[in-house]
Sequence to fold (139 residues):
Amino acid sequence: MPGKTTPHITPAELEVMKVLWQLGSGTVQQVIDAMPDGEPKPAYTTVMTMMKNLGEKGALQVDRGRQPFVYTPGVRREQVLSQRLASFVQTVFDGQAEDLVLRLVEESDLSPADLRRIEDKIQKRAAREKDNHRGGRKR
Fold:
């Protein structure tokens, strides 16, 4: 998985991927059964087609030796989320991640605990950058 380019995954396919990342692996019916309640679940053939397409893209691995087929994620969740976040920042914020963070802090309903976690991440990142700069290792 490392070094592999992330395939384009549509929003509907991402919902399937989220279920499979949670399950680890599963059949079409297991994926449908594990989808969140509250919305109508897609038809079996719709999910089957999405999973077939995800397999062709390399996002899922397919065990065809079992009936029904068993699907396993072929890309890590973090890999897909990083790619989608980078694309979102580029498209919506013209590549300015700072604007995204500021908007989240100013306009989202963040709890004090959320704000502390954000501050901690910023401090750890700043310390890491400072250490890298001090050691002559710039990124």
